[in-house]
Specification:
Number of strands: 5
Largest sheet: 5 strands, parallel
Structural class: alpha/beta
Radius of gyration: 15 Å
Oligomer: single chain
Number of helices: 5
CATH architecture: 2-Layer Sandwich
Distance between the termini: 5 Å
Length: 165
């Protein structure tokens, strides 16, 4: 199934990682289409070329997701921040543009990020007195066609489960 296909639904399940070989124009089109199809979703783009190491990733993620100012620059703080009720969305999808550059200087971090999203632990806000319900929390890694094979091999080597779309 192609991400360009209208039947592609990255919100059908939670804890999913997808890899798509798309050029930048196709990623822009996909982003807009998903925003139109799922207006209640929080769909944000991280620039992989700005996330070569953890420090840069946390800066980029804080800006893209508008994380609280008190959010720390570590994995526990990141996981807690994206799991909080304050995120106004019924689903979260992070598009990592240029994923081949993601953690190029910090390889183990790729597995940590994928583990956090694979857990799918992101409750939706609920009225007082009611338990929160799970909401889809997913990643879509975009690579250029020329970098696709090398990036998917990085994921496989790190033990990361993903679907190619």
């Amino acid at each position: 199934m192609s991400p360009a296909s209208p039947s592609f639904d990255p919100f059908a399940q939670t804890g999913q990682s997808f890899v798509a070989s798309l050029d930048d124009t196709a990623l822009d089109s996909l982003h807009l289409r998903l925003c139109e199809q799922r207006p209640g979703a929080l769909i944000r783009r991280l620039r992989g070329d700005r996330c070569a190491d953890e420090r840069a990733f946390f800066d980029e993620a804080a800006a893209a997701l508008q994380l609280p100012l008190y959010s720390g620059h570590n994995w526990n703080a990141f996981e807690e921040s994206i799991s909080q009720y304050w995120l106004p969305a019924d689903a979260i999808l992070i598009l990592v543009a240029g994923a081949q550059h993601l953690f190029s200087q910090s390889a183990p971090s790729l597995a940590t990020l994928s583990r956090i999203f694979a857990s799918g632990l992101s409750p939706t806000a609920s009225p007082a007195g009611q338990s929160p319900s799970p909401r889809p929390l997913n990643l879509l890694y975009q690579t250029s066609p020329s970098d696709h094979a090398a990036f998917t091999q990085r994921l496989i080597s790190s033990g990361i489960r993903f679907k190619t779309v």
